[in-house]
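Table S2 (text version). Query chain:
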Amino acid sequence: MKRLALASTFLMAAATLAFAQETPPLVEAQPTAATVETAPAPPPPSRTRPDSSTDEGGLWGVSDRAELQARASGQLETDAALNAYVRDVACRVAAEYCGDIRLYIMNRPFFNASMAPNGYMEVWSGLLLRAEDEAQLAFVLGHETAHYGERHSLEALRATRARANGAMIASVVIAAAGTAAAVNSPNSASSISDVTRVAVDAVYLGTIASLFGFSRENEAEADNVGFNHAVAANYDPTAGERIWTYLIGETAASDNPDTRRRETRGSIFSTHPLSSDRVEALTERAAAHSGSGETHRERYRAIIRPFLDDWLRADLRRRDYGQTKHLLDHLAQHGEDLGVIEYYRGEICRLRRAEGDRATALQHYANAITHPDAPAAAWRELGEFAARDGRQAEAVAHFTTYLERAPNAEDRALVEARLTQINAQTGEVQ
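Corresponding structure-token output:
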């Protein structure tokens, strides 16, 4: 039944492509005041809109419709500084296509970036959370820009038509299969919706999935072009092999045996895996490169630091604790943001409830509050543990600290009621 539903979704996407030539051209987004202040005006686009009667014109129409939905999505990240930073990195590796990019950062806890044939680019928070430094982000964005520059979506469309006598349904179903297989844990649009707690239009995801069913040769070419553009922008040449290797490791760390058996994907919309030969090719190219390049790790971490709490909370909702633990270990390797990281290590144990997890969760929360960046929720959880263990004075202290550190907490009334209950039990006067 689930497969039938998925196929139905992408048949709808196929229908979208079929009448895409009737879609009116997209009106360009107006920059916000913040964007105008923080970023120079981009260069003009390198491409003009193709005629709507052509194959490429049809792809632009599909892309326009997906872009309209992205722009209206509740998952759109609007922070001006983050958007300006990611756009700047994208332009550094986009070469002549910088002016074509219209960037949308989406708050979705999956590793994904894509650039549609009309120049609309999505970067998901799951990618930003997993990139170790700016060089890795630059490589991925250079890879996606390469798909755009080489017109791989158009190539895929024509190749599919040649094989299937114009049956677009086939290409879309292939893309659907790729989408389903690629997401590391929840593996459908509805699952993404469940994880993000925001309604995700399955047709919208299916539509953009239909644009990114690239061949193995396309992926290898995008790796090479992405590498060239990244090193030309003076980024660390090992960035590509490092981030692909990390993703392979995260897949192997999954709680789900089916996920561990699958090969890793570099994007949820990619139909071809991150095979060892792709990693080896990038490793050989980096070894042969004479320069060292920059990672810009510190400034990258400074940019994403304000979002770590929200993004890790969203990642935890995927309910793949093995992968989230792997991610936390990756984030902790430079000894930064340990308050947030220890809190979420505690959350994994609290939610998983395996043998020994209770004591381990308590220890991680206790570790978290020794760091200045610990989320206020760490004190709340310590208060709950203390109250359940009958350590009432300790519970009161932790709950009180929680309310002091999070005065506008949504659960303030509940915690205050908890304090009243404990004080009544112990005879304390408020």
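Notes on Table S2: The CA atoms of residues 109 and 314 lie 6 Å apart. The two ends are 57 Å apart (CA to CA).
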